[in-house]
Amino acid sequence: MTVTVTAPAVLTAACTLAQSLTDPAAAWPKGRPDGWRAWPQSLAGGAAGIALLHIERARTGHGDWDTAHRWLAESVRGDISAAFNANLYFGAPALAFLVHRADSATGRYRRMLQRLDTATESLTRARLAQAHQRLATGEQPPMEEFDVIRGLAGLGAHHLSRHGDAEITAAVLAYLVRLTEPLPDPAGLPPWWMNVGTTGELHPDYPRGHGNFGLAHGVGAVLAVMSQALLRGLDVPGLTGAVERVCAWMDQWRQGDESCPWWPGLIDHEQVANGTVEPDLRPRASWCYGVSGTARAQQLAGLALRDPGRVRTAERAVLATLRDPYQLGRLPEIGLCHGMAGLLQAAWRMAAETGNTRIAAELPHLANRLITAAKRPSQEPELLDGAAGAALALHTLGTNHAPAPHWDTFLALA
Fold this sequence. Notes:
The chain is mainly α and 414 residues long. The chain contains 17 helices and four strands. Strands 1-4 form a two-stranded antiparallel ribbon. Strands 2-3 form a two-stranded antiparallel sheet. The longest helix is centred in the N-terminal third of the chain and has 28 residues, at 110-137. The mean pLDDT is 95.
């Protein structure tokens, strides 16, 4: 007999994980790992990501602001980057995203937020100028130009959440529209096709680049952000057509059948030439490349285009995954990016968006798997792949509430 957890039990598990992350000095008992992800201002792996957990708990009345403030102070320790290496996951934009959520509930961080807003807007305009210059040459885009982690889809998600219909939001959306406009290409590749491998660098396994469907590094995030803008009534010229172009490409490569559709994580030039994707290339159900992200992007697009058939297809895709023990077994990690927490949060969003009770009914079982896995020793504390992200997804399910400004905007899920 399968045992599923109740909402109070889910909330208790989220609280237990959060309480293990209250002290910045104790979060990394073996010392902080190397690399930019672990810098305080990193949303992915640093203090900023753990601060987001405590801010969300405090905003919903399940945590205290002293803990949130302690982690926020840790996040802004040292020099804050507003250079070209800054993005939604690192530096001034990451901190602006974080502080916006804290200030929306307390009003305590207004001056800090204004400074971060100024730096983030300046960076965004510089990135836009560079992107438009590239577009004028007709060259293929680098991954970091438009993806959600390092690029303008991520900055667009932030500006849409922070500034609504402000000019900077419209400027990013106008770029995303232009990104989808066809370039002269005899092979018929889409304009977001990258001439690099999956790391964003040239790679012999991808001599002619790849097309990426995912929310982390691909056009899925572009689709999600543009669709959210349409749903919020933003009138940017060409936006509807841009959503339709991305949808048409994703429809071309959709696999499976009506009851269990899925999308590749990526395709290379050989697959384009052959017109086929082998079934064993079905990606795991992760947020970064799998159905956790692509189905949510498709649902948002269906709602934005008033296309109920697209919404149903997206919801069938995630429902089939939640009911498939094999697919769930391919996702043993706990995190938001590669693991169960990402699927849980995306599926909760999808169920909440349209009131899909069939998806909602599957979530306690997935939560039970996540709670069990999170009890394993030596879990990383970080947001993107560790305990903080798992705690946030469980907290959201347990409270059945994620108030605006939404914490999962950085995943392009809301």
